[in-house]
Specification:
- The protein is of the alpha+beta class and 385 residues long.
- Among the domains are: 2-162, Triger factor/SurA peptide-binding fold, CATH 1.10.4030.10; 182-284, Roll (Chitinase A, domain 3).
- It has helices at residues 2-10, 19-29, 43-59, 64-94, 100-113, 119-128, 133-161, 164-173, 197-216, 221-228, 250-256, 293-321, 353-384, and strands at 32-36, 39-42, 179-180, 183-192, 239-244, 268-270, 273-283, 286-287, 325-327.
Length: 385
């Protein structure tokens, strides 16, 4: 199962578990459903993408009529996506982009993650789950090539046009995203509370007394926890360790948010009882500076993503406009953004129109020659007489 999860990761946009099945089906039923310049889109690729979407939506909880409705909405985008992918890969070839190092690095990474000793061993494991490593390579290559084209021709251009003013404005607008949350180091004493209301009230009273005792300083908190805390943590002096503030339960976070180091909280009701917390240390939240390299990179990437959607679509539309694209009428769906060339198909004839015109011209010339010959003979006869 671990290896299967890894091979699924390798497929990126395609679920590799279905590739083996799709290849078997392709041998029997594959057909061209679209032509994109000199490349083709096969029915097996469309079927594979469709099945992946169905499985994804089922995992998301969709079923029956709801699933069918959503699927009908998404179907047109499958052909669009496969055509766009083909156009991007073609453009990558025009730009002479090489992604073989990335493909090999990805395969080696998965090989090491699964403790395999060689690519040959990984290929054998893939065959066991119906996956062809050559198909994996093609899928990876296609994905890396299309990413490289988008990066060079769209994202890169957007990034190079960003101004310092725009970057700083984005940073200020999204400053919360660059905040490092505060941390607090806590210790705890827990007094269990039975579900019986009367016994629970007694547990609360006991917890209050312990809190007063902890605050008085008459006993060290860790020693007190070892003596009275009713959980395994008490044996360690109640020490929880350091936690980020967002990780704390809401009621605990409220109690310790502004509590000074060394202070002890009132008993706080938890699911299993009453907890008394001591703040052992604190680290205040900070906002990372705009000048930090990682922050500057994140700001740039955020701006690019914010502006890229329309430009990506405009770029793809230009590729479509400049390409010859023909889609099988059975797969031309309402809602598709790709326009198919409308080519009139005529039944096959052994004699093409061009050949027929040549024949008719030849026959006409032969007829004219025959008429001239007959006229010449008639004239010769008249002279002789």
């Amino acid at each position: 199962m671990k290896f299967l999860r890894a091979t699924m990761f390798l497929g990126l946009a395609l679920s590799l578990v279905t590739i083996g099945r799709a290849q078997e089906e392709a041998q029997v039923m594959d057909e061209v459903i679209a032509r994109v310049n000199s490349d083709v889109v096969l029915k097996s690729a469309y079927t594979r993408e469709l099945q992946n979407l169905i499985e994804e939506m089922k995992r998301g909880g969709l079923k029956d009529q709801e699933l069918e409705k959503k699927l009908n909405e998404i179907k047109p985008t499958i052909i669009d996506g496969l055509i766009d992918q083909a156009l991007l890969v073609q453009r990558a070839k025009e730009l002479q982009i090489d992604v073989e190092p990335q493909v090999n690095a990805q395969l080696l990474r998965v090989m090491k993650e699964n403790n395999l000793q060689s690519l040959e061993e990984m290929e054998a494991k893939m065959r066991e789950v119906g996956v062809d490593i050559n198909e994996v390579r093609r899928n990876l290559r296609s994905s890396f090539l299309s990413d490289a084209v988008r990066g060079r021709e769209v994202y890169g251009q957007i990034f190079r046009q960003l101004t310092e003013k725009e970057k700083r404005e984005f940073y200020e607008k999204h400053k919360d995203a660059f905040a490092v949350p505060g941390e607090v180091t806590l210790s705890r004493i827990l007094i269990l509370a039975p579900k019986n209301p009367l016994q629970a009230a007694k547990s609360l009273e006991r917890a209050k007394e312990i809190a007063v005792q902890a605050r008085s300083g008459a006993a060290d908190f860790a020693a007190l926890a070892q003596r009275v805390s009713e959980d395994d943590l008490g044996k360690k002096g109640g020490k929880i360790g350091t936690l980020k503030m967002p990780e704390l339960a809401a009621e605990v976070r409220t109690a310790v948010a502004t509590a000074p180091v060394g202070s002890v909280t009132d008993p706080i009701k938890l699911d299993n009882g009453y907890a008394i917390f001591r703040v052992d240390a604190r680290k205040e939240p900070v906002t990372r500076a705009f000048e930090e390299r990682e922050v500057a990179e994140a700001v740039g990437q955020g701006l690019v993503m914010e502006r890229s959607q329309q430009q990506i679509e405009a770029y793809l539309q230009k590729l479509r406009d400049d390409a010859f694209i023909e889609i099988d009428p059975k797969y031309q769906m309402p809602g598709s953004r790709t326009q198919s060339a409308q080519i009139k198909r005529t039944p096959y004839s052994e004699e093409s129109q061009k050949e027929r015109k040549k024949r008719e011209k030849r026959e006409k010339k032969e007829k004219e020659k025959q008429q001239e010959h007959e006229a010449s003979k008639t004239k010769e006869t008249s002279v002789n007489n």
